[in-house]
Amino acid sequence: MNHELVNPVPIKHKFFTPGVIVLFVIAINGLVFLMGRFFFGLGAVTNLNNEYPWGLWIGVDVAAGVALAAGGFTTAALGHVMHREEYHTIVRPALLTAMLGYTFVAIGVFVDIGRWYCIWHPLIMWNGNSALFEVGICVVIYMTVLYIEFLPVVTERFIGKVNLPGLLSGLNKLVDKILRLLDHGLSKTMFVFIIAGVVLSTLHQSSLGTLMVIAGPKMHPLWQTPVLPLLFLLSAVSVGFPMVIFESLIVSRSLKLKPEMHILSRLGSMIAPLLGIYLAFKIGDMFIRETFVYLSEFTTASVMFSIEIVLGVIIPLRMFLSPKVLKAPPLLFTASALVVFGVLLNRINNFIVAYTPPYSTESYFPSIGEISVTVGFIAILVLAYRFLVMNFPVISMPGKQTAQPTKYTIRGVEK
Amino acid sequence: MSGKSRREFLKKSITAGAIATGLSSSTLKAGPLNILSPDRMGVLVDTTVCVGCRNCEWACKDAHNLHAGNLDSYEDRKILETKRRPDHTALTVVNEYPRGKYSNLPIDVKVQCMHCDHPACVSACIVGAFSKQENGSVIWDTDMCIGCRYCMAACPFQIPAFEYDKALDPLIMKCDFCFDRTKEGNLPACVNICPVEALTYGPRTELIKVARKRIKRNPDRYIDHVFGELEVGGTSWMYLASKDFKELDFPDLGKNPAPGVSESIQHGIFAYFVPPVSLYVLLGGIMWITKRRKELGTEEKI
Ligand code: SF4
Ligand code: SF4
Ligand code: SF4
Q1: pTM, whole model, 2 decimals?
Q2: Residues 6 or more apart from A196 whose CB is under 8 A from it?
């Protein structure tokens, strides 16, 4: 089959709908609590203390955020490194998610660290032994790479259409010229950034797993293992495509577009093997370290671990093996959502549930403030996504004329 | 290649890279100081001697400009009924436990940073604010700290505390082994004030000998275990006790240094930057080949 030409366009749709207004309310509620954090300190808004230094914000906003943005590098690897051009339509939406996702990861770090005005310190104060340092540096570089990868979308949107208001209109020509230069330069060098993005992702996705290794016996043995970095990488790789499908189906629903089932089904058929590898390592690790004994006890840890494995890995794995599931949007959506849920839960388990300090007086549960801020950030992210796809060429309309390959085919490699 | 020379290499290459990007090496710390000097100092805490007078708590606060109050107020033993942990208001606390095999008196245990020989906090700190000094003290540079609290997640003894209630300039706080006092030849404030000499300050190697001698001379009084001699690779502060340390709320830790596993993973992934660079080359190769194949494929079709 010849690959279809794709034509990403800004999607025309009403911005405000009842759902969007609800999102706004959630976002504002989060921002109010966030102000509390900056005016009165972390203790005022969160349930964090000397026993539990890390909570919901690190577990979900940062760790799960990074994992769920894995769609960016997995589709880039598929579409660009492997040159499967038929997948180019999903590369841009996945890239946008990754870009927004990492931006919110950075914001999440910013609000969580106590001395936020020192956030730039790791750039010049280095500690090569620290897994957190490695994660931090990689995330900063990767975020920059994502912005660069997104630039062609911006140039494409404005080239030939620069229209600055009032006095600035004299600059229109100049800006247009700069954009064209930028676009030209980028298309020649983009492959450098695309490969860098994939390498950086594998590095920090795995180092995120190294983070908790140093906590040693504070972490429940069901999760604490020296292969944590590998498990984090494998789970990130296997959640990449499900996240893309999950999002694509939500977006086509909410913007009233036809779901791109022909691509999503084929993407879905690749998920089972990836999930299978992850499951094999997870179970293998459990048997090698003989941690299955903990599953016979009925504790929060054993229950959470079982939910994570059964609901988040085994059931969707079985679903993705069935051709019927791959063809039916509701089933495909359910299976993908389960994988996303599974990885989200895995990160929560690793960073929150598994962590028991030696001197613990009461266990940690996130405060209303922490939950509000996290949910608020997700709402803002969704709103930003909606705004961007309505104003920039991100989503492709199948079957339209004026087709051209996406801006991102890496013209640099063609020569 | 030993871990140490690899670290050296990493440090050098990092410094070189930083200079190349125009940063002077004086503004840049490539990695924290982490010295394991053979002459490092330590403290031996004999919990069979300690009477729980809590004078050390007062002296510690007094030496660190924390609100110390009146020394007499520490005579109130009611506070010993609850178990406390060091925090930003008190860098050391004394907890009391039921009597052991030796005497009828309760056992009192002073708690503070252990000043590990292979400190997890030094390894973990994202900016390298923590350092292990030549005299054994594990201290940290408040100006570098970003407040990420990774040191707290890493410390096996749950020691670093954080000022959660401050909106501006919250600090990480813990016992600093009275670094400023020992630098000038003074004893740590707590050791200095202890009226019953439950705390002995000295070179760590000597302290181990002293501890062993005490156990040998009084096998009835002590259990045969010097806590901190081997735990997590050894600590500068060590304890003697008359009953099992687990019953005194000491964590049950192995002999391996806390940062061991994570550092070897970290250095494995980054060994000379070879793995990331090879991955880059590999992906570049695949990209080029698949591209070629596609082009050839289209040519054939035409
Ligand atoms: S006890 Fe904790 S804070 Fe103290 S040196 Fe060891 S790891 Fe660091
Ligand atoms: S809280 Fe401060 S001292 Fe602790 S790891 Fe983070 S930057 Fe380092
Ligand atoms: S050594 Fe100094 S800082 Fe540490 S507990 Fe004693 S008095 Fe406090």
Answers
A1: 0.88
A2: A141, A145, B280
